[in-house]
Design a protein that fits this description.
single chain, mainly beta, 15-stranded antiparallel beta sheet, 2 helices, globular
């Protein structure tokens, strides 16, 4: 957690991991890999308790080690055996999984870590996210029907710098459901949108400084128009 920005949406609270490292670092080049496998990791995401297994395979394909600046394109992050514990809805399925494949990725390994990445996303289905949205809304409504949607694929663009996480675009789709997210997260600002479509039903969960409301009018149009703005951040003293 010391490498994550303050108020990161995910905080690890318990767990163990195996770490394997084989790297060769020179002042102007880097190569090798760092592999981390964790089972039974406990975390909190948006104030909801989660449990999962996680496998991280970081490939070093270049960079400037003397600046702790690394090219990690081709790396993967896989999460499986996810459990969501909520007031309204739980989720528990050993066969569920999500894979993030980094097509372009740059990391500056300092505290907090700086990231700039573009990735492909593939997940078994949307059920854990449906459960989390149902817990926030206080009831499932039509979102509960999305539990049977399988084989969701998408793309994610994300930056983390100066203790600010920015998600310009994240979108996953299948034939019946779309799920999208955009936003900006810092110690003093939580601002963004979460979009969901199930067949002809659309919804947009708008988050403004931590306050949430669900909008069903022109939801996709509003999602496309939303642009995370760092101008809302408080100026640094």
């Amino acid at each position: 957690n010391t490498y994550l920005p303050p108020d990161s949406p995910i905080q690890i609270v318990d767990g163990e991991a195996e770490l394997n490292v084989d790297v060769l670092l020179k002042p102007e080049s880097a190569g090798g890999f760092v592999k981390l496998v964790s089972t039974g990791m406990h975390a909190v995401a948006d104030k909801q308790a989660l449990e999962a297994d996680m496998s991280v395979d970081v490939k070093l394909v270049g960079g400037v080690p003397q600046n702790m600046d690394f090219d990690i394109a081709g790396s993967t992050i896989e999460i499986s055996n996810v459990k969501v514990n909520g007031d309204e809805k739980d989720f528990n399925d050993d066969n569920w999984g999500i894979l993030l494949s980094l097509n372009k990725a740059r990391a500056v390994w300092k505290k907090p870590v700086q990231l700039d990445l573009e990735a492909d996303l593939a997940m078994t289905d949307s059920r854990p996210f449906v459960a989390m949205m149902a817990n926030k809304k206080g009831k499932e409504g039509w979102l509960g029907k999305a539990m049977t949607i399988d084989d969701v694929k998408g793309k994610v663009n994300m930056r983390a710098k100066d203790q600010v996480i920015t998600i310009p675009y994240a979108f996953a789709a299948s034939d019946k459901i779309d799920v999208g997210a955009k936003g900006i997260i810092s110690a003093d600002l939580h601002d963004g949108v979460l979009y969901a479509r199930f067949r002809k039903l659309h919804g947009l969960l708008k988050i403004n400084n931590g306050k949430r409301n669900l909008d069903i009018l022109k939801a996709r149009e509003k999602f496309d128009q939303y642009v995370p703005s760092e101008s809302k951040l408080k100026p640094k003293k």
